[in-house]
Predict the structure.
Amino acid sequence: MARPSLRSRRRIITPPLLVSQLETPAAVVDLDRLAANLDRMASYCAVHGLALRPHVKTHKSPRIAAEQLRRGAIGLTCATPRELEVMSDACDDLLLAYPLVGAARIRRVMALRRTVRLTVALDSLEALEALAAAADEASREIGVYVEIDVGMHRVGVASAERAIAVARRTRAMPPLQYRGIAFYPGHVREPIAQQDASLARLRGDLAAFTGALADAGLAPGVVSGGSTPAAWRMHEVAGVTEVRPGTYVYNDRATAALGACAWDDCALAVLATVVSTSVPGQAVVDAGTKALGREPLPEGPGAGFACVMDRPDVVVTRMSEEHGILDLSRTSWRPRIGDTIRLVPNHVCVVVHLNDTIHGLRGEVVETSWPVTARGREAAPEGAA
Ligand SMILES: Cc1ncc(COP(=O)(O)O)c(C=O)c1O
């Protein structure tokens, strides 16, 4: 028998990978900030007795989902079939908070592992009938939240009468289970301290829906709501039992601009390299629309598409696909060619979706990396999660 060589018994020490060694552009996450963000929302929900069902569209990663569940999340919220498929490996209680319309999409959702307790939010009798037929064919119990519109004007039934009609019809189709109502307060965009009027309207609208449903014998078991900007005051909206924030894990420039997180709570940045300074008054980095997305902030000084993490007054004001143009007209800072900088994007969810891998940093060390497994549309390969 061959004896192991001395060489193979020696401990191999690999030097830590430093952030400066990453090829750019790359998505990097400050692990301490991420943990603090996860803890803050988990403890807010625990203190106020709200069930936390975070939306995974921000991180699209079973690894972050596991951290949310470990901190007490009761389940997960998804928007796409791929998110459902990937997250079914991390969690057996999933909400599809997107209208389930179209035969191919329905077929895919019905094929989810049967141990998954699935709930679908919907706002039409058409979607409901198609779901009932598919659930019946698959002999599968599916929960339903009736989606209501309380001001976002995107999806959701507009009146209590419609909510009653959808809830009543759900009850009449046994493979389906009426579990409650859902709303998305994406229209509440004021800083937290200035949300009084919006929350008062929300309280009134919600009470009208829940009161009418209760009078019709259809009191919702679950009232599911909550975006990141509105999450921190959902305990003031009577009747809400569950919240679904997503962005809070990483936060972004838009969330900080709204005052829904502190600047130092922005955990994800796009690491970029300065590739040109030839035009006076600007520096060009290798992160354009294909790294940063093209989500505007409301116009105003410093609007733009992203800003430097430790110099928030330095903004990417123009972009091509692979070029981001930093406006240096309001700073004396002059980055040099080859410098790497961290850019906080306006909308982090879109940026995550543009990346295969996220790198987790502890200081300057790349401590860990994880795949954005649920990005894209196609079925995830077996064992991808
Ligand atoms: C239906 C639904 N629920 C929850 C969320 C999470 O909101 P936020 O991104 O503000 O955390 C979203 C975001 O798009 C959503 O569409």
